[in-house]
Design a protein that fits this description.
- This protein is about 90% helix and about 0% strand.
- The chain is mainly α.
């Protein structure tokens, strides 16, 4: 065994190890992106309920920070952690609109931008927050329903291609093969 073949084996093993590490890192990155997207979807699905709970606590007469604190105790896991972080930010002196913008940045839930604007408007102009929050929650639910209806209307069109390519030819074979065999054409 000479030095060239030994160096070649070392280079091949190093390159295979490098490709294995890169492949593993790529799969970890894909899994991270998938989990982040699922978390953002889960938070956006829960956001109308969270907004209504906050509106309920505000209508009782609680301050915004206390309403968010109590809403965080009621809502499920991914949202309550984020709401606790919002409350901590507000407790450290950050304006609520900035804390909600950080919420949007952490979660990727773009409906939170509108929520941040609602809180900013309430802080700045002293406008009634409860009615606007209830309307916002209703708009979120209507938008989600419209999105589901749009996806439902697109489903038959997406099913048409496999139907034409696979099911319809198989059906023709099943229907006409006995006729062709009896007729002696096959």
């Amino acid at each position: 065994m000479n030095i060239v073949s030994l160096m070649l084996r070392v280079l091949v093993s190093i390159s295979l190890t490098g490709w294995l590490i890169l492949g593993t890192l790529f799969l970890i990155w894909i899994d991270f992106k998938k989990r982040k997207r699922q978390r953002a979807l889960h938070i956006s699905l829960l956001l109308p309920n969270v907004v209504e709970v906050i509106a309920l606590y505000l209508s009782v007469g609680l301050a915004i920070q206390e309403a968010i604190t109590r809403a965080a105790a009621v809502v499920p896991k991914p949202v309550n952690v984020e709401l606790d972080l919002v409350v901590q930010s507000i407790g450290l002196g950050m304006p609520i609109s900035d804390a909600m913008h950080l919420f949007v940045g952490r979660t990727g839930c773009h409906d939170g931008k509108t929520l941040a604007l609602l809180f900013h408007q309430a802080d700045r102009f002293g406008s009634g927050t409860v009615d606007k929050l209830q309307q916002f929650a209703e708009n979120l639910r209507e938008r989600r329903l419209n999105d589901l209806e749009r996806v439902g209307k697109a489903a038959p069109i997406k099913m048409l291609i496999p139907l034409i390519l696979f099911i319809f030819p198989a059906l023709l074979i099943v229907l006409f093969a006995p006729i062709l065999i009896k007729g002696g054409l096959v």
